[in-house]
Design a protein that fits this description.
Helices cover 17% and strands 37% of the residues. The protein has 126 residues and is an alpha+beta fold. Strands 3-2-5-6 form a four-stranded antiparallel β-sheet, with no helix packed on it. A three-stranded mixed β-sheet has the order 4-1-7, with no helix packed on it.
Length: 126
């Protein structure tokens, strides 16, 4: 009888530990990729991209966050929002996009969804 109780307790402990370890999910990356094209449709490298949140509350509160990056040779600026997203959070942000290179400018908007690669395209023009 004593051995049966020890066996049952051990089985419950091992089962609980394995369930606990199995439920640990690694947080996926929350990335924003902004593709920039000019009026001819060509991807633009070296464009400055600013992502920022705008308050929708009255009175207006300060900007949520402002990030700047430059497009690479493939015309893509990449932003990592892993530090903003917390596990269990529903949604991350909706951000405005300002793009500029020389005398060309463009605007857009991107919705950042947790643990996804979020993509937006911006056209810059005079």
């Amino acid at each position: 009888m004593k051995n049966y109780i020890i066996f049952a307790i051990s089985l419950i402990f091992v089962g609980g530990v394995s369930l606990g370890l199995g439920s640990c999910n690694k947080k996926g990356d929350t990335i924003a990729k902004i593709f920039v094209r000019d009026t001819s449709g060509a991807l633009v490298s070296g464009a400055r991209i600013i992502l920022y949140g705008t308050s929708t509350e009255v009175p207006v509160k300060s900007v949520i966050r402002r990030d700047t990056a430059y497009t690479n040779a493939a015309g893509v600026a990449i932003f990592n929002y892993n530090d903003v997203y917390q596990t269990g959070q529903a949604g991350v942000a909706v951000l405005d996009i300002d793009a500029r290179k020389d005398d060309l400018t463009g605007k857009g908007i991107i919705k950042i969804v947790e643990e996804e690669e979020n993509i937006a395209k911006v056209l810059i023009q005079p």
